[in-house]
Protein 1
Amino acid sequence: MKKSFGPQTLIFPTPVWCVGSYDKEGKPNIMTIAWGGICCSTPPCLTISLRKTRYTYENILERGAYTVSVPPEKYAAEADYFGIVSGRDENKFQKTGLTPTRSKLVDAPYVEEFHMVLECKLLHHYEIGIHTQFIGEIMDVKVDESVLDEDGKPAILLVSPLVYETKSHFYHGIGGQIGKAFDIGRKFG
Amino acid sequence: MKKSFGPQTLIFPTPVWCVGSYDKEGKPNIMTIAWGGICCSTPPCLTISLRKTRYTYENILERGAYTVSVPPEKYAAEADYFGIVSGRDENKFQKTGLTPTRSKLVDAPYVEEFHMVLECKLLHHYEIGIHTQFIGEIMDVKVDESVLDEDGKPAILLVSPLVYETKSHFYHGIGGQIGKAFDIGRKFG
């Protein structure tokens, strides 16, 4: 029996991603979001949604760029902090001791200590209700060599990204392998 | 040391969601995607990206609606099959024995057996390279009572959604709780 929860932003899984940007004075900022996803394969694009009131909103429009750094489990508290406090009030990199590395490809900083980072150039932005959706072309994906598998591919259990449990407001890790994609379904013909 | 992977759609986590639609003749179809996410809180909206060649593409434009059913771990093979075969060639519900339930709110079917389903009314669509991004307003979220926690909230470990490991092409489950959101970061002040 299904219970109706009404119109709301309730779905699993949603990501926990940290968006890096520079403000007018060149101060690096970082904020955490759960609203976003890949939106195109060619060109490779990642979308994130922000409210206009966010400090990062103006930064992205002015610089035409943002990064997404994927926080690993060990930095869950830092990622949470990045979503609680505004960059208007604090230098969140200084407060947490994490390192803002300037991207060589786009005008935005990423979190050096996080295993996986994406550097995005702003292509479009659309107003959708109270959120603005930014579409960024992924110019590069950088991954720490320490979290690659034996085939040289990023291993999700080593990258150890977080999943956000909407409604209950918990962060979760990634569980074990369930099966191979484009393979386990072939039994249905 | 970070290794550069170049411009590509590589990020963790990405979801595994099954998109339900009706074709011109009223045949229910279902396909699996990993490109999508929440894109607005008010109105609550979910975005999914599809190639124009997909059978579901025309269905959504004609009916102005789609659903997203979240496949639980136990139906990983079915969800995989939904992403391998086209609805042009097969009735994927019949092949897997899963039940297409007609939404009472939008003109699209969802998967009865999956624990969490969202019913979306098409608001916009944007061309972004080879993918078209559909923006759907979430009209309702329905969740099986069997996967609610003691507070009546959907429990992610019971809903048991899948995470897609891009590049390696594996499905993963959800891991244990890492911490409380808007809480564990407060120690940074």
Protein 2
Amino acid sequence: MVRQDDADMTGADEQPAIDLYRFVSELFPINRSLTGAGVRETLKAVARHCDLSVHEVATGTPVLDWEVPREWNISSGTIKTLDGRCLVDFAENNLHVLGYSRPIHEVISRSELAQHVHTLPDQPDLIPYRTGYYADDWGFCLRHDLWQTMNDESYRVDIDSEIGPGSMTYGEFFVPGATNEEVLLSCHVCHPSLANDNLSGISIMTALAMRQSKRKRRLGYRFLFLPATIGAITWLARNEKATDRIKHGLVLTCLGDSGPFHYKQSRKGDVIDRAVAHVLKHEGHAHEIMPFNPYGYDERQFCSPGFDLPVGCLMRGVHGTFPEYHTSADNLDFVRPEALEQSYRSLAKLLDVLDGARTYCRVDGRGEPQLGRRGLYRAIAGQREAGGATQMDLLWFLNLADGHHSLLDMAIRADVPFARLQSAARLALDAALVREITS
Amino acid sequence: MVRQDDADMTGADEQPAIDLYRFVSELFPINRSLTGAGVRETLKAVARHCDLSVHEVATGTPVLDWEVPREWNISSGTIKTLDGRCLVDFAENNLHVLGYSRPIHEVISRSELAQHVHTLPDQPDLIPYRTGYYADDWGFCLRHDLWQTMNDESYRVDIDSEIGPGSMTYGEFFVPGATNEEVLLSCHVCHPSLANDNLSGISIMTALAMRQSKRKRRLGYRFLFLPATIGAITWLARNEKATDRIKHGLVLTCLGDSGPFHYKQSRKGDVIDRAVAHVLKHEGHAHEIMPFNPYGYDERQFCSPGFDLPVGCLMRGVHGTFPEYHTSADNLDFVRPEALEQSYRSLAKLLDVLDGARTYCRVDGRGEPQLGRRGLYRAIAGQREAGGATQMDLLWFLNLADGHHSLLDMAIRADVPFARLQSAARLALDAALVREITS
Amino acid sequence: MVRQDDADMTGADEQPAIDLYRFVSELFPINRSLTGAGVRETLKAVARHCDLSVHEVATGTPVLDWEVPREWNISSGTIKTLDGRCLVDFAENNLHVLGYSRPIHEVISRSELAQHVHTLPDQPDLIPYRTGYYADDWGFCLRHDLWQTMNDESYRVDIDSEIGPGSMTYGEFFVPGATNEEVLLSCHVCHPSLANDNLSGISIMTALAMRQSKRKRRLGYRFLFLPATIGAITWLARNEKATDRIKHGLVLTCLGDSGPFHYKQSRKGDVIDRAVAHVLKHEGHAHEIMPFNPYGYDERQFCSPGFDLPVGCLMRGVHGTFPEYHTSADNLDFVRPEALEQSYRSLAKLLDVLDGARTYCRVDGRGEPQLGRRGLYRAIAGQREAGGATQMDLLWFLNLADGHHSLLDMAIRADVPFARLQSAARLALDAALVREITS
């Protein structure tokens, strides 16, 4: 039986070990894509905070139905007037070049350029984010306002990039627990300068990795920093046998904006869904629960047939529904320090719920135990000032400590915050009224 | 594995092979009852359109708890004044004589006649429909208005009928499928000139029988044209062992009026209930789902203990709740050609859903398959103009193609019309991403 | 197969065998506590109406996690002014002395007395009810109004009581049934002059015990008159092996006030919950269904882990929520004869439902039986005047008599009063259409 220290069980009001917003800001300028130097630089920054394993998987490696793509790197990209005025520059904003653009150095007509230009006519002051991973293409993403003013007959376009054999890079950090059961946490690391849709997840997950490695743990925690889709597929392909250890999982994304939380349920419906709903409800956060669908982030891989892992997705803003999504407006103004910290604290509480959702069995025979002679009424009165268990919480705990209800099941049935039933459990353990059932 | 041609899978916007309303009109004048010449004539008309087997079961044959009744035939029935004026004439409307009336040729007092006269005081201009199958009785059904004017002391009543040993007649048409699994469709053929409550079902079922016999089929289709109650009981008694092949069933009645659809669920709750609800919802028809009860049409026999088959009942107007029910107003004005055709089309779509509710399993390993290299994004774009699958439909299909979800389960979870998931299935089959699971 | 007489099945409109209110009045003056003479006197009064077994369990006997407490008896208790004026007298109202007060004979200062005085500042004209079962204490319960006027420097306090080895007393009455299955009914007998919270349960349960012993019974009925908590624990400890016979159970309390019924569900969710909800609904009584929680009356013992019996709790007023609760206002004015009788009748009907919830199976083969040739249409018409089964009730019965539905299941699905399906069952039994399934 694993017991946590009291200090470990009091929840998650603590500050993250890193300044979340500062870490987002540090990573913001880096040009990330599915592969290449930007991903490596990002993972190196994460590795300064936790003992991250960085994996390189060679181009062409078969992974399930896919294969690892060629590596892309880019050093510059510009559109210039023929008289040398630079109108569009990758160095200013890395969204300007279509992801996976092949190199080009040419003077071309405006009409030909138009075939390679992406703008947002409805948001004319924003640069869109576009990629062409598996197309052999090149392109530029521009403010529509600017494009409207570009009426020369020809322009000089230059992209210094390389696409070729190399490798795909992903990061993994595993904190073992006292049992073989694991929680999987995953974020994507393949978007360039987008703050909410990418960096919020990386920053919060780094802080959670630091947090979990310093706590006593029943469960193991596996933190995956993955290029979207192909990264998840690669990880699944290389760890197929280990996936049955994953008891709960969560994809983290878009957690830095100031909107309400959105939780997308797992395909199969599992403990993770009940745990997230419980935490969001009792934290008092505005939130919406959304049913599973096979679109979105890497939960669609983790929940694919054959694996069908119990993995949901926690977001604030939902991809495709906020105006800043996949534009230059998803920047350091859009993401707020307070929102990042609130997301972190809710997730820390969630991990405490998952880790603390132990199952207990009464050892003192049947019926209701006598609380008075064990000093438990007094103990409860003492806790009350500290927000601990009430007498009713203790009665719920003792009533449901039958080996068939986890602490989370109990908290949901009693409809009180998890931490209060956890306090009740501690009182009962101290009084030797229950023992933990280990699965 | 059975594959349908594309043409077979595009749904049911086609016209019925017969003019439904004309067929109702053709059958309307015939005097039907539980037994007798009228049923035979009706089934002969049906047999002109499909290869119907007509069964004769001798009077007195024991069938479960019942026995086949004596045969009734009638050639005329009148009430006349003593000076020979004909007031009520079976030849004018076959509702005028109580079903199974024994012969009578007498002059009787008005007060004695009153014991044998049925009217509708609240609908004084309508003739009621009444029968006395198992009573040894005779009677007349009249407009209450007329009865009010009949103040003579005596009247002459004549009924030329025969009740005696003979047989009961029912029709059966079976279209075999590629598997042993069957869909049972049933309507009643024992009501005289009632258009909605009888003929709408006969007409639509005839057209459906013609339709199904011309299509590639996974399932077999069994069409039963039965005298109500005793016909169903007789069929069950003679086919007891075959009933475990029936995977879905539907009783059809009152499908020619212009009201909303009503679907009464099966006793056990089964795929048929979900399929009908899905089709009615996505067809956009006003409809109401009603729980099973042990009254109504022959679903009460099919859902009786011992059998408990998955059989529901589809109606527009519900027996006993519309003013025309079991009166002379349930006539060729009450039934509308458009309503008949709409009912037919919804049922055709339903049969396509039942037949197409196959189960698939991914053959390409785990995770999400790569759509791009198989040209599936392009294929979807091509379909979109034809109302085919969207990318999301294809993702739902591939996500749920785990051998545990039928196409109907998928369509319900995705909440999109069945045909779109069927299109997605076809794309995935063509790309060799899935194979069908045969049960 | 056990058949009840018709007279036994017609429900529960009968009068209770004793005057419920008079019995409450008779028991009201007695001073009850967990142990002692008052409990014995109360059980002796109950035993005049049924063959009650009275059990004495010695102080110190270990029972599960508890032990039987010392016995407490009291003969007098007063607070007097030093000049001999009696201000507070146990002889006037037995609530005046804290339960389990130790003896005291002293003159003490007002300020010291204040440590031992309990009042209700918000209900200044009422005496509170308080106990100190397991504390070694003494005390008085007073009207706050009176306490406010007591400004002398010192008072003389006298309590003539004894606490010491002795025994705890409880009563049990068992009426065997035709089967081994039992219904447990329980009330508490440990409160002094409180009419609703104690005596209403004792009075109604006595009448129910008399009623059940005079009826033919499928089930056995076990009536427990218990000191709360320790009585239930003691009974459970001494009857551990017999508890698996208990198929339904109910704790009765606060059934004499005029408020709506409240039913608290069992922990496990079982037939008792459906039966009570069915009866309260079809009796047309205002009522509320409350989910289980581990607080309240002895249902918390019966539903504790290890036992987890199917026991709910029926109340009108809910403990702790009505202003008279645990005060001198819970008296003979608060309890109403009509309310007691209505509660009795609903419970009598409930017991008839539990006893009558037999399971039947059709013996006449499959399909719907022919009602006409068995005279069942005529039989139903005859019953209708007596509020018996309708034709629809009989069809429901015959449809669900498949060996898998109890009569209660049928009544709930048909949504009609239980007695009507019971009448239908009797018709079908008389017609030899069904046989009872004995478990």
